[in-house]
């Protein structure tokens, strides 16, 4: 489904604690100034409300906002050039109720989405549906989206207010709900959605609408997330019940993959090949982006292709110019930690080469000849003077996690691990170069310096079901079951002749513990909006001290993280707008 930016619907007011309004851009139907009651009283008009409910997810996925909320501040990433961009989230420096975008922005986006879902669920019986199946499908979409938004809310800010009815006027008081109550609603909504949504194929060209595989995938994730709250409370029996449900639903998706219309790619390179992005067969849920920017809901619908891009152009990069294939390098934000790079054994695991770029082949219009002046300027050995770098054939730039001896004698620019990281694994101050995450590269943009992305965003994919099942099996004291699930992905990831070397055993799982699972999740899912939630979920011990220790040990540039950072602060303006703001209270650690 692609939302058009040409038609406006009416505003839904008072979505947040304060008197915020939200206008939503829709397609298919123009109310022409009619009230929401009239506009949404027919099946045709009601679809515009359903469409609008999808909109707010686009403020998280495809944007820096979602990447910083879901990936930064973990063991995997840090600011490029060790700068201070969004340092409140990347470094936990100054994260307060009054500072720290995009944390403060995303609060608003998600609540707008919740209110639209509540509006639709509350009005659907008056929308004039004569076909019960169509009515249930539309309600299934809304319930899926409400669960989607509420999962992000409760995992980010904890037990805040839980609303199931449309907010039409400013609400000046609010009551916190328990995390358990949030998950009861999330699970109930996803169960309804799974029972009533069709297969993706049913939607035809609107393939990014929620489908039964989307609902089941998120249901497995919800059960897994919920289990840890019981584990933290010491209720092992209850936790095991949720772990069992997470395992069962994840395996159900795997076992029914043919029926659901989803499958693993045979290798990681095919998975991330830009040519396979649209209608990607591994996706459980997708946010679609048109290759025609003029019909997207906004001009910059997907900007993530720039986020992890190392610089490759400039006077110290002979033989290289901007290209669609190599990306746009002027709005880079995050670079990988040494820990992330070291999680991969690239001698047997194809996921490293499929996920990261270390080599740039010369692409300038003319060949480059090393002159004596260039040798001196770029600190090269005089022996390469006169050597020719042939465009389209020869290496121009190598940025690698390995140590490269005799770098000055290479007839190309070399940046190795010792240039980027110190002996502790910390990123050196001001480091400009880094290994590029290339999962989201977008060669189909209009020109090499365009910031307008065209690729769909895969929010959840089938590989996560194997990882969820493995984690649940581990927590249920079945390490062999966990190893079996991991080995499916590791077999897919194995380089030719390395399948046996990639297999893990029950003993590996037992000895490695939850960190073993987390490292496998990093290898499979790095950059995919989920790492912060993984650590928040699993590193709950000692009031979050385990969260702090895991991050600081593996990302030594982060020194200010504390256990309470497993929740983010609520916008102070929202609390100030409440008559019972003091009673409602800020999240612990942020007062």
Descriptors for this entry?
591 residues, 23 helices, globular, single chain, disordered N terminus, two-stranded antiparallel sheet
Number of strands: 13
- Write out the strand line-up for the largest beta sheet, numbering strands in chain order: 7-10-11
Structural class: mainly alpha
> How many separate helices?
23
Rough outline = globular
Rounded to an integer in angstroms, the radius of gyration calculated over CA atoms is: 25 Å
β-sheet strand percentage: 5-15%
Mean pLDDT: 93
Low-confidence region ranges: 3-32
- In percent, how helical is the residue content? 40-55%
The major beta sheet can be summarized as:
3 strands, mixed
N-to-C terminal Cα separation, in Å? 42 Å
How would you summarize this macromolecular structure in one to three sentences?
Helices cover 42% and strands 8% of the residues. The chain is mainly alpha-helical and 591 residues long. It is globular, with a radius of gyration of 25 Å.
Description of the molecule:
With 591 residues, this protein is mostly helical. The chain has a domain at 306-437. The chain is built from 23 helices and 13 strands. The chain has helices spanning 36-39, 43-55, 64-70, 87-90, 103-123, 132-157, 179-196, 212-232, 236-255, 257-260, 268-272, 338-343, 351-355, 372-377, 417-420, 462-475, 479-493, 499-502, 506-525, 531-538, 541-554, 572-576, 581-584, and strands at residues 7-13, 21-26, 77-79, 283-287, 334-336, 356-357, 359-361, 368-369, 388-389, 395-399, 413-415, 436-437, 457-461. α17 packs across α19 (506-525). The protein is globular.
